[in-house]
Specification:
Low-confidence stretches: none
Shape: elongated
Strand order of the largest sheet: 2-1-5
Number of domains: 2
Largest sheet: 3 strands, antiparallel
Order of helices and strands: EEEEEEEEEE
Strand content: 35-45%
Radius of gyration: 18 Å
Mean pLDDT: 78
Number of helices: 0
Length: about 130
Amino acid sequence: VLDGATNIQARDKVGPLDVDSNSSDGNLFAWIEPRLALLNGSKWEFTIFYWVEESLYVNRNGNRDLDFITPIFPLFVETLQMRIVLPDGSEVIELMEGARVHEDDQGIHVIQSYENILPSEQKNVNLIYE
């Protein structure tokens, strides 16, 4: 996320979600849990919001300018890594291209990474497990 990003929030179609976040080594991490357990055939969509300090990216020189974020403006998420923690005993049946499965003493994780994402882009992770 952009340097100086703060106040990370997430919402699904019902409302706000609990978000636990911290930063380390210049990276911002957020953990978001579904409102309810995901059952067979479930689909979960959510949106992440964050704020950046205007003074870090906008210079004021006494003039009044109105600036709009456009796709050519270099305001993007440099790297986004989604880590989905599966219930104990799960088995991955189908996984989207580019995602990988990691298994350790904390359980089974599906990891999907994206780079250079514009704020207007929507990213999906498709996963079938049992």
